[in-house]
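Encode chain A's predicted structure.
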Amino acid sequence: MAVEGFPRLEKAFVFVFEIDPPVKIGTTSSGSDLNYVRVTGGRVTTVHNFSGPKLESTVIEGEDWINVDNDNRRSRLDVKIRHENASTVPFGNAVNFGQFQTGDVRYKSLENDFFVGSGRFVKNDNGTFSVEYHVSKVIP
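Encoded structure for chain A:
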């Protein structure tokens, strides 16, 4: 018997954020560490052949709330950004999901979609850090 009905993914966006050093807020009741990171800039680009609206944008500011599991192997991110015009670690240590909210009618259809992504921290040549996400659209 064939198993059917699984969603598939469509490559959609690449998010690259410049960030300030994380600030540890404390330990949650589950034992995970909660950290706050200020997003100071960045870029959102659309992956070639994405079927949805093309989004090319400069990030103006934002924030990222990071819950790091007790074993330091996984983290959950909660990123909020504002953008105009609408040592490095490997991918896979931070997986996230999300949806878009927009006031721009050109990107309104993105509000009906669900996205998942894999992220990593990147150490830049000047010693600062960036966060990079590769984001895919979930296709039912």
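The mean pLDDT is 82.
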